[in-house]
Amino acid sequence: MDHFQYRDGVMWVEEVAVPEIADQVGTPFYLYSTATLQRHFRALDDSFAGLNHLTCFAVKACSNIAILRLFAGLGGGADIVSGGELYRALAAGIEPGKIVYSGVGKTAAEIRQALEAGILMFNLESEQELTVVARCAAELQVTARISFRVNPDVDPHTHAYISTGLAKNKFGIPIAEAPAVYRRAQKMDWVEIVGVSCHIGSQLTKVSPFVDTIDKLKKFLARLAADGIAVKYLDIGGGLGIRYDREEPPEPAAYGAAVRQALGELDCTLILEPGRVIVGNAGIMVTKVLYTKSGQGGEKKFIVVDAGMNDLFRPSLYDAYHAIVPVVQGDGATQTADVVGPICETGDFLARDQEVPAARPGELLAVKSAGAYGFTMASNYNSRPRVAEVLANGAEFHVIRRRESYADLIRGEEIPGFLKES
Ligand code: LLP
């Protein structure tokens, strides 16, 4: 359930009419609902109630500091994958002691930054990375709390680009080889082993891959215990899917119940790294129809809108489906059409051969389920300023990121002297 509902044929977000926001902010823009974000965070978090756990929101899914602050207020931590995400998490007021740092390619500078901040733990993905972390920690004379991300070779049954837990994927350390790496870490100075971590993929619509993974992780923990290594944290990553179209992913409560059952008795703290399930359906992108046209013979229909692949990349990159609905319902007429943007690429589309409103120029469309990996994957391609982000809260709405200006586009660029002379 979300808080984007029609009233008398007009889409409202909480207690605000969406066209009113479009009038004031212009289009396109991302629009999030505070009540929906809170509801989704709590639904996930509550499904682990009574179990020692920490919900570390995956910042990459939606990284605006206002939204991170909202989750911090609900007790959330952060799963980060870069120095930039660390900077955002700290700026948003997330406690360093609730931040876990994942990713295959952390640089020494980023590792130092995280050590200085005092994050909860690094999820390390290679032996070489361990060496760098130990060196940085020794230089700074601080202890690095670490876990290794193990790759369990479980098929998450999701899009190939967002599968991470297969042996052929670049992520983690093969689970069979991980005990040796743990033993090596155990002997190192300035390194404290605190956890085991794993993340098998994103947009999972079944619980079975999670359960299979947990079975493997439990065996792995037993194996570590036999080597005299006990951990404080078991991080099972994120990955729970949402409904974009006809998928039927498990509800957070069902996911929580399945995970808990698979875990059985757990004498450490469980860490979760949900992203999409919290923010995906808590955000939409609002765009305006510029033109409509037909291909040769009139069969193919195009709706040209003011948002493109640079604003919402998922359809182009993954062939992902996003429902597109009218902001103001007219006569309800629909058509099969491509909804395309202004970018000079054939791959620039928000929908292809999809049942969409028979919209006319000037009308507003809502691209649904855009809260996760929407704005965060936006770019300036074709020198398009990135769009505004708006957060509704009851009868109020706030611009939480202003639309970029043309000056923003060239900030940091410089014409060197030798070119000015000519
Ligand atoms: N933890 C780690 C280590 C991750 O790599 C990810 C996502 C998550 C947690 C959060 O996963 P979630 O709960 O959101 O499924 N851009 C793609 C998704 C990429 C996911 C990358 N990793 C998309 O738009 O579908």
Describe the overall structure.
This protein is an alpha/beta fold. The protein has two domains: 4-31 and 280-410, Lyase, Ornithine Decarboxylase, Chain A, domain 1; 34-276, TIM Barrel, CATH 3.20.20.10. The chain has helices at residues 18-25, 34-46, 65-73, 83-91, 108-117, 127-140, 178-186, 208-226, 252-263, 276-279, 314-318, 406-410, 417-421, and strands at 4-7, 10-13, 16-17, 29-33, 53-58, 77-80, 99-101, 121-124, 144-151, 173-174, 191-197, 233-235, 269-272, 283-294, 301-305, 324-326, 334-340, 349-357, 364-367, 388-393, 396-401. Strands 4, 14, 15, 16, 17, 18, 19, 20 and 21 form a nine-stranded mixed β-sheet that branches. An eight-stranded parallel beta barrel has the order 5-6-7-8-9-11-12-13, surrounded by four helices. Strands 1-2-3 form a three-stranded antiparallel β-sheet. Helix 8 (208-226) runs parallel beside helix 9. The N and C termini lie far apart (61 Å). The model has no long low-confidence stretch (mean pLDDT 96). The structure holds ligand LLP. Ligand LLP is lined by residues 58, 61, 79, 102, 162, 199, 202-203, 237-240, 273-277, 314, 318, 372-373.
